[in-house]
Specification:
Number of helices: 17
Distance between the termini: 22 Å
Structural class: alpha/beta
Shape: elongated
């Protein structure tokens, strides 16, 4: 048994509320469980209210598996616990005293919890090391209504997490939204394998330098390839020689410093995802679109986004995936599936933060956009589909990635609506 289970029992009153008594055989009436102290030090619940033998008390509540944990955790030496009015434990093993030698009243929860609740708890947590997720066996029987409601909340929770990087980039760029979009696009063009490497390239540039090169495709390509360290090889091709000359000029003009740029990885990538191809597409995107952030913010439907981002590359890259080797000639347009990833990981998050910064509630707009995108295809999503989880669009896939990473892998069932539902469903109402 974990302490967070007892906190769950107390917080949601999952125990018999009538005829409560302390271990000192005093009548106990619960008026308010208090405010859960999740992240800070000190007692587990602040500002609780109880009556003990008719005397009303207001103060804090501390929760432990066994009452002697009070001394194991050295609470007797911490003034933060001086205002504890009730000690809630699973098993009372020893009396706890305040500094003035008065006894702290104790509630032994095991006397008031339905056995069915313990059965459900054990079903979630037994053999969890061998399960993909704790509720793997029960999840297919959970109603779509329960899961769908939780998915929407999970999705916005994931958006808030993505907001952390955006807000940090805004702070560093003095609220230059165009510069922030540029860095986010760079990061996400690198995908998971090269995302941090691509971001390091973007961080090595001032966005004003990108703007000054935006009227010339060869200069944008030279800037991106050169700063990435990809122009150092000697390839006897006119295009490559011109890039090297342009980068040498730009490096002197802007005082460019490529130190700190992380090397790209090509290993195990499909050729269309090679960093060279993605940089060529980025160069074309910024060559064709001045004031890209303004366009992104004012787009009204998904098709307009597909039209905006469906760019190709310069002619050299139609017959190359790398500088040194020629390949069969083919147009290397940004695909619809890749644009979907950009919308999920870059465009929608930045629209979300931009609207919030302007005091606008963007939830309806965001839900409309994300619900029009196809769900992602990866191992996590494939597994949830086998467990009969609703998976109709990108909102669902983003939500389930959040669930797996932040709840299932952390065994956070007691913070999860699905976990709460499974704990409740076999239990008698209290």
């Amino acid at each position: 048994m974990k302490e967070d289970f007892l906190q769950y029992l107390w917080k949601f009153k999952k125990f018999e509320l009538c005829n409560l008594k302390t271990t000192q055989n005093e009548d106990l009436i619960l008026h308010h469980v208090g405010v859960h102290n999740i992240n800070n030090s000190g007692p587990d619940f602040f500002d609780a209210r109880v009556s003990i033998n008719g005397q009303k008390w207001a103060g804090n509540v501390e929760v432990h598996i066994k009452s002697n944990d009070w001394y194991v955790h050295n609470h007797e030496n911490d003034s933060s616990y001086d205002n504890v009015i009730l000690h809630v434990v699973w098993e009372d093993t020893v009396q706890i005293f305040r500094n003035d030698n008065s006894i702290i009243p104790t509630l032994q929860l095991k006397d008031y919890v339905e056995p069915e609740l313990l059965v459900q708890y054990n079903m979630l947590f037994e053999d969890r090391a061998r399960r993909w997720i704790p509720c793997e066996k029960q999840l297919p029987d959970v109603s779509e209504f329960i899961i769908s409601n939780w998915q929407e909340r999970l999705y916005f929770e994931r958006l808030e997490q993505k907001s952390i990087l955006i807000l940090e980039l805004l702070r560093k760029s003095s609220n230059n939204w165009e510069a922030v979009l540029f860095k986010l696009l760079f990061k996400n063009f690198g995908l998971k394998v090269n995302g941090e490497a691509f971001l390091s390239v973007a961080n090595s540039l001032d966005f004003s330098e990108v703007r000054k090169c935006s009227q010339s495709l060869i200069q944008l390509e030279a800037l991106f390839f050169g700063q990435s360290g990809l122009l150092e090889s000697k390839v006897p091709h006119e295009y490559v020689v011109n890039l090297q000359k342009e980068y040498s000029y730009l490096k002197t003009k802007f005082g460019l410093d490529p130190r700190g740029v992380i090397p790209f990885q090509f290993f195990r990538l499909r050729p269309p995802n090679f960093p060279t191809v993605r940089l060529a597409q980025l160069a074309m995107l910024y060559f064709k679109n001045d004031q890209l952030f303004s366009k992104v913010i004012h787009v009204n439907n998904i098709q307009e986004y597909y039209d905006l981002f469906k760019v190709n590359t310069s002619e050299f890259w139609e017959s190359h995936y790398t500088f040194g080797k020629e390949s069969k000639k083919t147009k290397k347009n940004i695909t619809k599936s890749f644009i979907d990833l950009l919308l999920i990981n870059t465009i929608i998050p930045i629209r979300f933060i931009y609207a919030k910064n302007r005091g606008i509630h963007p939830e309806e707009d965001i839900l409309s956009l994300i619900s029009q995108l196809s769900y992602e295809k990866n191992n996590i999503i494939d597994k949830f589909i086998t467990l009969k989880t609703p998976m109709n669009n990108a909102l669902h896939s983003q939500a389930m990635i959040q669930l797996k990473n932040e709840y299932c892998d952390e065994h956070g069932c007691l913070r999860c609506q699905i976990g709460n539902y499974l704990l409740d469903k076999e239990c008698k109402p209290v």
